[in-house]
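User: Hey, my collaborator sent me this sequence without any context and asked if I could get a structure. I don't really work with proteins. Can you help?
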Amino acid sequence: MDRLTLLSMQGGLLAFMGIVVYLAWRTQRRPYSDNGPAWFSVAYVIGGIGLLLEAYRGIIPNFFAIILGNFLFLMIYVFMERAIAITTRRRSYMYWLLGLDLALMASYFYFTYARPDVIARTIEAVIIMPVMQIPIWVHLERCPEKTIRPALRAMSLVLLLHMAMNFVRVIGVLLLHTADAWFTWTGVITIAGMAVSFMWVDALRVREELERRAMTDHLTGLLNRRGLEEFGARELSRARRHHLPCSAMALDLNCFKQINDTYGHGAGDDALRAVAGAIRASTRITDVATRIGGDEFFVILPGSDEHGAAEICDRLRAAIRAARVEATGGRSFSIALSIGCVTLREEKMTIEDLFQESDAKLYLEKGASRGCDGQAVRPGPRLLVRRTAE
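Assistant: No problem. I've predicted the 3D structure and written it out in structure-token form, which is a compact way to encode the shape of the chain:
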């Protein structure tokens, strides 16, 4: 296969895959997505144009085929580094790479017009291209985000393959004065592999977001039953491995129906959000806080013994006492909780056991309380928690 056909094919594939990445990003773009795919698309399209210019060496002026073509082709690494840095949330070295590309083009200009030397240009490319690829590889390897790690590892392997095969191909050109077609076909694999892997990154993040939403209660932002099963089982397994106790709290809002009847269901939702906020403020990051349904909550406290659980209960009660919810008409009210707390060890540390025993303690506490005597719905100072639009 001749040079014109090979480079035209690679340049066309680069531009096509760049457009595909951009369209996929535009179609699936979400409010929280970054613009890494846009930079990646620009890298591929510009790199493709550069290869197309290189393909017509000898047909079009050398300035366009050699100087501008190589400059645009190497810009693929400049923009790709920027795209990967944004995607992996790392510092970008884009302007350093741009300066390196410009310096290389100045040297290409010299070895094209002042002192024509194809071998010198080839040796420079062998040295500069890996230098420009190294920051990209470092970003891929050092990204701490576990969700997208499989896709980043795939990109890293494809990039290493490209670096290795390009080196071998250039050695073949220098020693044997030939470039086997299968070396060029590895470039096609690299182009497709990098683009597909980059789109895989976004797919992994979309899946994680969907799973997170599926495990989150939309009203309070706490976990739902599915999230309880996923994260609760994980924390309990960790506690068992380290032979630690585990506590749990079952909670529900006192006189929740009276709140809804007196102030409206919007105020009831505000009360539930206030309880969720108090739970988050009173528990640790390793605790598993769940809204079971209605006004019922359940919190697993892995690693907490009776004393630690009692401290968390005290903090939660204090946070609830301090909370005020504003209702329509300028009215506000306080809220009250009943809490059932239990601590289990080793063999009985399952989600079912923790829930049943803490729920039994909850009903004992509710039976011993005075019921809806106004404590949960008494007027209070104006709000700490305001109702927001859903």
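In plain terms: The CA atoms of residues 259 and 268 lie 6 Å apart. You can pass these tokens on to your collaborator as they are.
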